[in-house]
Amino acid sequence: MMTLRIICLALLGLATAASADEKPAAPVYTLAPGPSLDVSLKLAQAAISACQRRGFAASASVVDSAGLVKVTLRADGAPKPPVAAPLKAATAAAFDAPGSEMEPRTKTDPVFAAQIDAHKDLYNPHAGSLPLHENGKVIGGLAVADVPHEAADACAREALDAVAPNYK
């Protein structure tokens, strides 16, 4: 019995040593269409500036067409960590609709509401988010959060108009 235990421990040690020498596999990322980093930064900054002019300290996020964050910014004085903005932007991209249309839809369309409820870790359908388009295809989303929904919507629209009106 002692011999079997020693053999098992030896094999376990060899397996551990072998795996310690191996390098971890590099992560695999897909390259989803999306706005450039430069445009993403400008959109987020313009959205935060638009909110500041209205007296609000906001968070803003831009995602690519897969809903992956390109950039998230949080204004000085913003009251919360920037959790809602990336989710709102990803929702606008995933459903190709602004949050101002999706938010009321959750009250009238039970199938849509069920989709949102089933993926609260991915989606936030509130106002303040817009899909971004290029050549008729969704390439991402822009969202403003942590301010009243009407203000968030106005700030996002103002930023898109100022920085990338061709992404409407």
Describe the protein's architecture and organization.
The chain is of the alpha+beta class and 168 residues long. It has one domain: Beta-Lactamase. It has a 4-stranded antiparallel β-sheet, sandwiched between helices. Strand 1 and strand 2 form a beta hairpin. The longest helix has 20 residues. The chain is globular. The chain starts with a helix and ends in a 5-residue tail after the last helix.
List keywords for this structure.
168 residues; globular; alpha+beta; disordered N terminus; 16% strand; 4 strands; four-stranded antiparallel beta sheet; Beta-Lactamase
Low-confidence stretches: 1-20
Rg over C-alpha atoms, rounded to the nearest angstrom: 22 Å
Helix-strand topology string:
HHEEHHHEEH
Q: Would you count the extended β strands for me?
A: 4
Q: Helix segment count?
A: 6
Shape: globular
Total number of domains: 1
Strand adjacency order, main sheet: 2-1-4-3
What share of the residues does DSSP label as strand, in percent? 15-25%
Named at the architecture level, the CATH assignment is 2-Layer Sandwich
The residue fraction in helices comes out at 40-55%
What is the CATH C level class, in words?
A: Alpha Beta
Major sheet characteristics? 4 strands, antiparallel
Q: Which class best fits the helix and strand makeup?
A: alpha+beta
Question: Whole-number average pLDDT?
Answer: 88
The end-to-end distance, rounded to whole angstroms, is 73 Å
- If you consult CATH, what is the topology? Beta-Lactamase
Q: What do we call the CATH homologous superfamily? A: Haem-degrading domain
